[in-house]
Specification:
Elements: H1 3-36, H2 56-61, H3 67-92, H4 97-109, H5 113-123, H6 126-142, H7 149-172, H8 175-204, H9 212-270
Helix pairs in contact: 1-3, 3-8, 3-9, 4-5, 4-9, 5-6, 6-7, 6-9, 7-9, 8-9
Length: about 270
């Protein structure tokens, strides 16, 4: 892929990421106002009053206008989890990676390079793409009488490294979203908590009888934002760890297959 094509693709990815966040915020705000803020969720049909007993939509609405931002974080997380699942599923290709690697190793031992390349075309995963690049170089180097043995081994290793460098960005793309949401969700929730507590203490500080409604609203705002912030952060951490482990597994399989092919090529040169 050319640098121009790679830059254009990266620009599209950035636009997609920004669009997802904007759309998630719009959806979250509409849900907050029209669904959670629906008068049927509150006593006397007044959103400024108490939420009905056991009505969680009304309770969440009492969290204030920090809630749509926290909802945006959670919705953005869900969208990118789906995106990562689809992308990594495509990167995995067809069938089990262990069986695919074992099949390639068996074909290489029999010097069936063309059959191995056909197997890569059928598998259609990131590992297959890297292996196909290495296999193509493998066959070319076998026919090259000019290069020394060490030069050939370095050449096939370089082919693997270049092919791997093209695949890894796709595997790790958008992972920063999860790590960012893990920390940002907690901080935004903390802001909502502090604002809620300010409102609660302001209600207590009034002369005479404290404003019970303002006090309850302040406490609700604090607790709802705390709950949303912790939930968003927890889900983000779980998603980040899951996808990191999956990507590491793919990377290990690519390295294992590349090492196997390089060793097989070095052994063939001794014959």
């Amino acid at each position: 892929m050319s640098k121009k094509g790679s830059s254009f693709k990266e620009t599209l990815q950035n636009i997609f990421s920004a669009s997802v966040i904007v759309i998630a915020f719009i959806v979250s705000y509409l849900l907050f106002v029209n669904v959670m803020g629906n008068p049927v969720n509150f006593e006397g049909g007044n959103p400024k009053g108490h939420a009905l007993q056991g009505n969680y939509l009304g309770i969440i609405y009492k969290g204030g206008y920090i809630v749509p931002i926290l909802m945006t974080c959670v919705l953005t997380l869900i969208i990118f989890v789906i995106e990562r699942l689809i992308t990594l599923s495509r990167a995995k290709g067809k069938g089990r990676l262990n069986e695919f690697v074992a099949k390639l190793q068996n074909l290489l031992e029999q010097d069936k390079i063309e059959e191995a390349m056909e197997a890569c075309d059928k598998q259609k995963g990131s590992l297959a793409n890297v292996m196909k690049a290495g296999l193509s170089r493998y066959r070319d180097l076998q026919k090259d009488p000019d290069l020394e043995k060490d030069q050939k081994i370095l050449s096939i290793q370089k082919a693997f490294e270049e092919a791997t460098a093209l695949e890894l960005p796709m595997l790790s793309k958008n992972m920063v979203i999860f790590s960012t949401l893990a920390s940002v969700s907690v901080l935004i929730g903390l802001i909502g908590t502090v604002l809620g507590m300010i409102r609660a203490f302001a209600a207590l500080a009034q002369s005479g009888a404290p404003d019970a409604l303002a006090l309850s609203q302040g406490i609700s705002e604090a607790l709802v934002n705390t709950a949303f912030g912790i939930t968003g952060s927890t889900l983000s951490i779980l998603a980040f760890n899951f996808f990191t482990t999956t990507i590491d597994s793919y990377t290990f399989k690519i390295d294992e297959a590349g090492f196997s092919l390089t060793q097989n090529f070095a052994a063939s040169l001794k014959k």
